[in-house]
Amino acid sequence: MLPLFPGSADAAGQPATLGVLGGGQLGRMFVHAAQRLGYFTAVLEPDPQSPAGLVSHHHIQTAYDDPAGLAQLAQLCQAITTEFENVPAQALQTLALTRPVAPGAAVVGIAQNRIEEKAHFTACADVSGVGCAPYAVIEMPAQLQAVQDGRADLLPGILKTARMGYDGKGQVRVRTAAELAAAWAELGRGACVLEKMLSLTAECSVLVARGWDGQVVSFAPQRNVHVDGILAVTHAYEGNMPPALATRARDAAVSIAQHLGYVGVLCVEFFVVDDGSAHGGLVVNEMAPRPHNSGHYTLDACDASQFDLQVHALAGLPLPQPRQHSPAIMLNLLGEVWFDASGQRREPDWLAVLRLPGTHLHLYGKTQARAGRKMGHLTITGPDVVSVKTAARRAADVLGLPGLDVS
Ligand code: ATP
Ligand code: MG
Fold this sequence. Notes:
Elements: E1 17-21, H1 25-36, E2 40-44, E3 58-60, H2 67-76, E4 79-82, H3 89-96, H4 105-111, H5 114-128, E5 135-138, H6 141-150, E6 157-161, E7 171-174, H7 177-186, E8 192-196, E9 200-210, E10 216-218, E11 222-227, E12 230-236, H8 243-260, E13 264-273, E14 281-288, H9 298-301, H10 306-315, E15 328-334, H11 350-355, E16 359-363, E17 374-381, H12 385-398
Parallel strand pairs: 1-2, 1-4, 2-3
Antiparallel strand pairs: 5-8, 6-7, 6-8, 9-10, 9-11, 9-13, 11-12, 12-15, 13-14, 15-17, 16-17
Helix pairs in contact: 1-10, 3-4, 5-8
The structure holds adenosine-5'-triphosphate (ATP) and magnesium ion.
């Protein structure tokens, strides 16, 4: 029964426990937030050394769709969430038979499929005021031909698999109809969307939290810099983007969450494109049904983090409107940071990083550094934007990321 009071116990003495499906770093930071409030936690994750499993009271080590594992999770927990996008929606459905689950299987299912996701964005466009990039669904050879015959405007474009894409994986950039056909074959001839390649002036994202009772709070948009399709830097401070665009993005994200009847933290990603208008146009890219990498700065720069809000939303507690108290820049720490220019393994110079003012280091407990693997992040806060940018520049240089755009 919600609300689930933190620190309480049932008649049998079992403590109030929140569950999470998936054991990655998002789960780890959710567990930290839940435990700080006094909840016990349970993580279902097959990897014995997962970031979240390592810090949780309970770690159920089974596959995500294992019936016995799911039954144990439901038995231990009074409410359950998920931390990664490609969790089987069926598992959430099974859990929802006996426990409150947020976000729900239906909305996670929409976010897992770019075709359904774009259909949702299009359906809300009248209210949200923001549409998605021009696109076509590619599921059969005739649709390839149709692009060639009547949708040449979509080229050059990006072919994206409808399902299981993340961090730029499952995507191929194509310039011609011939390249499109080859890319579709390369991606396995499954369901895909071809999206027009837009000329981006910036990217941003908005985090919204919505409760079971429909209460909504949100963070101001953060501006994101991607390198090779992976988030590299998040800029979170006033003036990070034109105020009129920021307001539109925030309003659009709230209406997208409301239209879904969403419960929990939702991240909506946007493109800013040069459409000839004074501030540029806004295009919705995709949504993540969970806290998001671009919201990690909220841990150190806000009085309630995205993970606090996920805990509150799941447990049926009031949602505080978060207030950002410091400007912040977040640098993602990918596996590359653990290797020097000649490919030799090295320990990053944490002492030099931590000597810089306002640095907050978060490592996820992963022992194997690999290129592109998210190992941790560094948030830099300060009294003003100039000092944050100065410290971020120095930190990037110390970490061997000299080309990174932190300006
Ligand atoms: P993630 O889930 O990690 O956010 P993803 O694999 O789902 O990433 P997208 O968000 O679709 O991928 O794309 C990754 C990046 O590629 C975007 O942030 C953007 O920089 C670039 N990109 C994607 N689609 C387009 C487009 N239509 N036009 C221009 N750039 C694009
Ligand atoms: Mg994305």
